[in-house]
Specification:
The longest helix is centred in the middle third of the chain and has 14 residues. Helix 8 links the parallel strand 8 and strand 9. The chain is of the alpha/beta class.
Length: 260
């Protein structure tokens, strides 16, 4: 059985191609949220195939149990580039149990240098923003970092773009974000809508992660350049992956070949 560590559009693309092109029908896909599981119903509802979804966070012991119980022989790690705790745990477990591991890593986006400043940590971005007052700032990093960036709203107008789910909106409200500062929308967002948002809210600075082109990153950067908005980028964390693929088609073509 194949286990796809999911939660991204990449993981759904990989699943679709494995099922439709390689005729794989013995697959488990895991996501950290129920929302992620909902996006997989197209495949899990097909009774002719053994496609299963797990919608919860798994610790290392649960990962080991899953691998043993389901007789998993291959793990495709297509988790988000910033979900480093998940990847580190999966790598550790596969090495302990001797299970084949493949990583899908999104290609890095060439931001150029115009209107772009990169940072190693969110703390550095917070420090950078402290010099401003009365600026309009838009975070497109989702709901996971809402608490860490909240201090930006002390002297500036901080808007947050998050998923339109009860959990995301509730988290924002509990942290003190007013409804007028919450933009709830399902991404990826195209350039036209990004431009409309930047203009409507008169955004001066946009905060984003170095997620890669798949998640609509290019459209955000292009919109910012068109509108003269500065882009503050949180750099992608480093993980010592092995067996890395940056292209879905290449992965699907080679996943069953011998690797390290």
């Amino acid at each position: 059985m194949i286990w796809i560590v999911g939660g991204t559009k990449d993981s759904r693309d990989i699943l679709q191609k494995l099922v439709e092109e390689r005729k794989e029908d013995n697959i488990i896909v895991s996501t950290a949220t129920a929302y992620g599981g909902e996006l997989l119903k197209k495949y899990t509802s097909d009774e002719t195939k053994n496609i299963q979804a797990i919608s919860e966070k798994l610790n290392e012991e649960q990962m080991k149990e899953l691998i043993k119980d389901k007789n998993i022989s291959l793990i495709i790690d297509a988790s988000h580039p910033y979900a480093i705790n998940v990847s580190n745990s999966v790598i550790k477990v596969t090495e302990e149990l001797g299970v084949k591991y493949i990583r899908f890593e999104r290609k890095m986006l060439d931001y150029g240098t115009e209107n772009v400043v990169k940072f190693d940590t969110l703390e550095e971005i917070n420090d950078y923003v402290r010099q401003f007052e009365g600026k309009n700032i838009l975070s497109t990093m989702g709901s996971n970092n809402l608490g860490e960036i909240k201090e930006m709203s002390e002297k500036n107008n901080l808007y947050v773009r998050i998923l339109p789910t009860t959990a995301s909106i509730q988290k924002a409200e509990e942290l003190g974000y007013l409804p007028s500062k919450i933009i709830a929308i399902q991404g990826p967002v195209d350039k036209i809508m990004n431009v409309a948002t930047l203009k409507s809210y008169k955004i001066d600075y946009l905060i984003t992660k170095e997620s890669g082109a798949t998640g609509g990153e290019a459209e955000k950067v292009e919109a910012c350049k068109e509108c003269g908005v500065m882009v503050l980028v949180l750099k992608r964390p480093f993980v010592p992956y092995k067996n890395i693929f940056n292209d879905v088609d290449e992965l699907v073509e080679n996943y069953d070949k011998e690797m390290v």
